[in-house]
Write a structure and sequence with these properties.
By secondary structure, the chain is an alpha+beta fold. It contains 14 helices and 13 strands. The protein folds into three domains: 119 residues, MutS, DNA mismatch repair protein, domain I (3-Layer(aba) Sandwich); 59 residues, 5' to 3' exonuclease, C-terminal subdomain (DNA polymerase, domain 1); 143 residues, 2-Layer Sandwich (Dna Ligase, domain 1), CATH 3.30.1490.100. The protein is globular and about 55 Å long. 33% of the residues are buried.
């Protein structure tokens, strides 16, 4: 099949966004006489295949069709990406290079070049926006697309997915796997089912049969420890999870019990949240993976305050105020969730953001040690004085700006709130 758009042949060039003439990208538009009745949502999940090492193979033919892996350094480090030729040896991301070499003595190690990977990813994500403006970048090698309304321009979900795959192969000489489904949970599952270079469409009427005998560990968000806990309760498949009493799941796992029940049924109402670069940014956030999993309240409180400060400094640097605070938590078993709170006023100071973030955090019982914390602010606006006509914040704004100048000159945390220590 033919293709849309053109490739940026000079890899060092900056990436430009799609043309405003959206229709210019359409190769095979639909017959306007055909009426499309769309499902409520059609979500596409794109996952690049062994991304880091595939980029290295693309640029170095000597690595092709050989067991090879990208690592942080060539001495003591961990594997971040391994070729499919290396995986039969049990080599996977997170494994130490020493263990990888023990399993496969002829494994070729390549020191990672993250600027090259992010530049490649930026070109790919720019390509995705030719098909829909609703693109959520989930990581450097994966993204969600809401293509529900794109069907007015393109032939079918399968056509959109195949077009994306073809253009990535043509422009970047890389492969990806794509899942298409009614929601993000199932779309990500689909992208995993036929790797590498797969394309899986999960229809709404097929969900029950697909999940009936599918191991719970196949669902994104159910890591090894959570999977073991579910297995100990006699829950091995998604079908069993969907039928299990919610009350018992909630007693065992707290707030995530209801979410687990929904996952077992294949339900997921999370929207695709695009990140719009430049002045119209919709959110600013920071997250951190803790040095070790912990349930220690003082440590977690300090981390939340540090993250709130980082977010607030970025907001002030770009002249933003926000009204919605979001807290993200990832437990030791990798189960991750976010909770948010919409405020009645506009904020951009670290202490105000922290106060709201801590209230959100404390409102949830945390049944397991925490691995990652994140704080974000969304519903951003500039020119706060137009948003709150009778608010007088000049004195506090001057204090915050003075703190920012001191910290920029003498280093982070030279001046901060007393509660941080």
């Amino acid at each position: 099949m033919g293709f849309l758009g053109s490739c940026n042949k000079e890899r060092g060039q900056g990436v430009k966004g799609p043309s405003k003439d959206f229709a210019s990208y359409i190769l095979e538009p639909l017959n306007p006489r055909i009426l499309i009745i769309m499902e409520p949502r059609i979500i596409l999940h794109l996952d690049m295949d062994a991304f880091f090492i595939s980029v290295e193979q693309r640029d170095n033919p000597l690595l092709r069709e050989k067991p090879a892996a990208v690592c942080g350094s060539l001495s003591r480090s961990v594997i971040t990406s391994a070729t499919y030729e290396a995986r039969p040896y049990g080599i996977r991301a997170g494994m130490s290079t020493q263990e990888a070499k023990r399993r496969c003595p002829h494994l070729i190690l390549v020191k990672g070049n993250h600027s090259k990977y992010t530049e490649t990813a930026a070109r790919i994500f720019s390509l995705l926006r030719k098909f829909t403006p609703l693109v959520e970048v989930a990581s450097v090698d994966e993204a969600y697309l809401d293509i529900t309304e794109s069907l007015l321009l393109f032939q079918s979900p399968h056509h959109i997915a195949q077009s994306i795959k073809n253009q990535i192969r043509k422009c970047e000489r890389l492969t990806c796997s794509i899942g298409i489904a009614p929601n993000k949970l199932l779309a990500k599952l689909g992208s995993r089912l036929k790797k590498p270079d797969g394309l899986v469409v999960i229809k709404k009427e097929e969900v029950g049969e697909l999940l009936k005998d599918l191991p719970v560990s196949k669902l994104n968000g159910i890591g090894p420890k959570l999977g073991e806990a579910l297995n100990s309760m006699g829950i091995f498949t998604c079908g069993q999870l969907g039928k299990f009493p919610v009350s018992i799941l909630s007693d065992r796992f707290g707030i995530i019990g209801e979410r687990l029940h929904e996952m077992g049924l294949g339900l997921d109402d999370r929207p695709v949240v695009p990140f719009d670069e430049g002045e119209d940014s919709k959110s600013i956030s920071h997250s951190v993976t803790l040095e070790k999993d912990t349930s220690e309240p003082n440590i977690l409180k300090t981390v939340l305050l540090q993250l709130s400060e980082k977010v607030s400094r970025r907001m002030r640097k770009d002249g933003f105020y926000g009204k919605r605070v979001v807290v993200t938590v990832r437990y030791s078993d990798f189960f991750t969730f976010s909770k948010q709170k919409t405020l009645s006023r506009w904020v951009n100071s670290g202490d105000e953001i922290f106060k709201q973030a801590f209230e959100i955090f404390e409102a949830v019982s945390h049944p397991k040690p925490i691995r990652l914390l994140g704080v974000g602010v969304s519903q951003l606006k500039k020119e706060w004085y137009q948003l709150g006509l009778f608010e007088r914040r000049d004195k506090k704004d001057s204090l915050l700006k003075a703190m920012d100048r001191v910290n920029e000159r003498f280093g982070d945390w030279t001046l901060t709130w007393a509660g941080l220590y």
